[in-house]
Amino acid sequence: MQRLLDFLKKYSYWFLFLLLEGLSLLLLFRFNSYQKSVWVTSANAVSGKILEWKSDFSKYISLIDINQQLTQKNILLEHRVQQLTEELRKKEVENLSVALSDSIKGYELMAAKVVESSLFKKNNYITINKGENDGVECEMGVVCGTGVVGIVYATSPHYAIVMPLLNGKSNISCQIRGTDYFGYLRWNGEHPKYASMEDVPRHAKIENGMEVETSGFSAVFPEGIKVGEVVRTEGSADGLSYCLQVNLSTDFASLRDVYVLKSTSHAEIKQLHQGIIKEK
Amino acid sequence: MTQNLFYRLFWAIVLVALQIFVFGQVCLFGYATPAIYVYILCLLPLSTPRYAWLLWGFFVGLMVDMFSYSPGLGAASMTLTAMVTPLLLRLYIPKDTVEDHIPSFKLLSKWKYIWFVSSVVLFHQACFVLLEFFSFFRIWDMITAFLSSSLITIIIILLFAKVREPQ
To answer: Any idea which architecture A107-264 has in CATH?
Structure first.
């Protein structure tokens, strides 16, 4: 008996070994499926918390990388935006030419950018980044996506100055859409949003909200390009005609992209004019 | 005795923490994950009772398991290793040394200490890999994992030993 106890005492660690190893293997095989292992894995509160700290810490450490990635991404996106804007502009030209295809037949559209413009002077001018070298000539019409802008007034090799509707000298032949009444659009230098259409006959039936468009009486603008809407009807100073207040559809304050209308018959007409002047 | 206990406790915590936060995250070449916590078994003198070896091994293994989604795996391999380590230590330790010294470069001589650490690590890795793969089906994966992990673990542990024991 004593020897048995001695034996047990001497080799007691074997029992401990078997116990611990058995326990470990039990854990290993029995709890290998995730659900049952909750209490001994990271799902318990203490290790969960510690792992959370660890994750927070490593997140913080990797912030520099993430920042760099974001910056790169930003540059990429910026680039993309630029590309898309460019695409959009091209599309806009196409759309515009589709929308105006009927009225714009015989004209070429040339996209240009506004370089400089004024709004509140008596005689405003707009500078665009296309000039003689691009085929821009004096007395060509200039339009934008929403309506008429003006007429090319002077050109240099790379730039052109446009006389917009907002100029005391501007004088564009217009008509009321859907009728045959026409008149001349002038600007009195007061408000960049409004111009007046003069010389409209008194017998014309004018209602507010009627649309004003170009008449096509010259080669500058084709017929049917929108100018604005009638907001008020007044008698002219001499009482012989109406003077219509027109709300211009072009927003000159935010004008960025314009299109120069290049008439295919422009040169021919010009030649004709010069011929007549010579004859005189 | 109490001082030694705290000393080992300190090392156990350091090793487990390092294993969880640093070395457990490593997987070199897709195979090699160092298991440095086995170093705790190299910090016990030969005079330590056998049950103490087993308890140290088991609990350190269990701690690591709790944080690495492998319940029982570390505990089982560490308990097995804890059973064998005293026998290995007896192989390398000179006969005439005092038995309650912690094994070190100085105590065992340089190469014997390296051999001692290597055999402990190799044994532990063998248990660990066998239990992890639990079949001989992917024999080459197993051998690669075993050899690469062992090598890297041995190197790290020897560095630790060097730090612990400035010469």
So the answer is: Beta Barrel (2.40)
Decide if A29 and B72 are in contact by the 8 Å CB cutoff. Answer: yes
A12 touches chain B (CB under 8 A): yes
Chain segment A71-95, per-residue pLDDT in tens: 888 888 888 888 888 888 777 766 6
ipTM for this prediction: 0.76
Interface test with A, best of B26, B48, B50 (most A CBs within 10 A): B50
Residue A219, sorted as left (phi over 0), alpha (psi -120 to 50) or beta, turns out to be alpha
| Chain B residue nearest residue A28, CA to CA | B72
Distance from CA of B67 to the nearest CA of A (A): 6
Residues of B in Cβ contact (< 8 Å) with A41: 65-66, 69, 71
Domain that holds residue B158: 70-167
Tally of structural domains, chain B: 1
User: In Å, how far is B13's CA from the nearest CA of chain A?
Assistant: 14
For residue B40, tell me if it sits in a domain.
no
Domain locations in chain A as residue ranges: 44-99, 107-264
Min Cα distance A71 → chain B (Å) is: 28
Say if B6 falls within a structural domain: no
Q: pLDDT digit string (tens) for A129-176?
A: 888 888 888 888 888 878 888 988 888 888 888 888 888 888 888 888
User: Does residue B60 lie in a domain region?
Assistant: no
Query: How does strand A226-235 pair with strand A257-263?
Result: unpaired
**SS3 string of A62-111?**
CHHHHHHHHHHHHHHHHHHHHHHHHHHHHHHHHHHHHHCCCCCCCEEEEE
Q: What are the tokens at A16?
A: 């401990």
